[in-house]
Design a protein that fits this description.
4 helices; alpha+beta; two-stranded antiparallel ribbon; 236 residues; globular
Length: 236
């Protein structure tokens, strides 16, 4: 009586392990690129809403509140809001109205020590009431009460009242993805245009394989190994 030979399972087991590792890699979350920058907000009642245009193009009405927050984040969804309430009456109660002028409450939150660039300490948050021309932009209102301002060549707001002393929407040190020369599109761009992208969180376009491609390769590896195993069983 012929003794059956043991079936070799090394190939299929190894393929399954390889496929698991590959699909696990594909399923892993992409690391978001983080930047240190000034974000721009407008008051909505007593709360804040992320501004959809830059401070140079947004022209707030009399009684509006504009907020600026310095922080580290990847995009608008993760950006920290100003920690002072958007309360126009509290900010501008001591500034009487004038004909031909408008009052805009300005909230400036310099952020936390954790988010500050190396060697710098953030000033305390402050509020100002800017009284400016009726057609003035939020950027002009900010400039009226918080000079000096600093912008880069892309019109991205880099510093308010001289803070920070240097840098502009730079990638935070220790970020896991390669540095990009572009600033985050959610930054306070003076002209309201897109200031650049901080990277696609999906990983598309970064030179790495897509999840669909990796998953397909893993499936081919498993099916191919299964066919070899079946053939060996028939010969055995």
């Amino acid at each position: 009586m012929r003794q059956s030979r043991p079936v070799r399972r090394t190939g299929i087991a190894g393929a399954v392990l390889l496929a698991g590792a590959v699909t696990g890699l594909a399923a892993g979350p992409a690391q978001a690129q983080e930047y240190r920058y000034w974000s721009f907000w407008h008051g909505k009642g007593s709360s804040w809403a992320y501004a959809t245009e830059g401070p140079a193009t947004l022209r707030p009405a009399d009684g509006a509140v504009a907020g600026f927050r310095f922080a580290v984040s990847a995009d608008s969804a993760a950006a920290g809001k100003p920690r002072t309430a958007a309360a126009f009456d509290a900010i501008c109660h001591g500034t009487p109205a004038k004909d031909g002028r408008k009052r805009v409450g300005i909230v400036i939150d310099f952020g936390t020590a954790t988010d500050a660039p190396g060697g710098e300490r953030p000033p305390k948050p402050r509020t100002e009431c800017a009284q400016v021309a009726e057609d003035a932009s939020a950027g002009e209102a900010l400039a009226a009460v918080a000079r000096p301002l600093r912008y880069d060549s892309r019109a991205l707001l880099c510093a308010i009242a001289g803070y920070p002393e240097a840098g502009c929407a730079e990638q935070v040190e220790g970020a896991k993805e390669p540095a990009s020369s572009a600033a985050p599109s959610s930054g306070a761009s003076a002209d309201g245009s897109d200031a650049g992208s901080g990277g696609d969180a999906s990983g598309a376009g970064d030179g790495g394989p897509s999840a669909g491609l990796v998953g397909g390769v893993a499936a081919v590896v498993v099916l191919g190994a299964a066919a070899v195993w079946q053939a060996r069983r028939r010969r055995g």
